[in-house]
Design brief:
With about 60 residues, this protein is mainly alpha-helical. The chain has a domain of about 40 residues. Helix content is about 55%, strand content about 5%. The chain has a two-stranded antiparallel sheet. Helix 1 crosses helix 2. The protein is elongated and about 35 Å long. The termini are far apart.
């Protein structure tokens, strides 16, 4: 079975796998957590914000 992939609007951009997208979001969410001073209780917010940031970068 083929893995789903995500492409940005740029024709020269490489295809990104779901696993790669998840890793990018995970990394950004952790950066947001660290920026907040490593305070717990905001993981869902960090994840959603990271997802928004990464998807916006991929569609530029």
């Amino acid at each position: 079975m083929a893995r789903p992939s995500f492409k940005s609007n740029k024709s020269s951009s490489p295809t990104i796998t779901r696993e790669d997208l998840t890793k990018l979001i995970e990394k950004k969410a952790y950066e947001l957590y660290e920026k907040r001073g490593r305070k717990s209780g905001h993981s869902a917010e960090d994840w959603l914000e990271a997802e928004r940031i990464i998807r916006a970068k991929l569609t530029k």
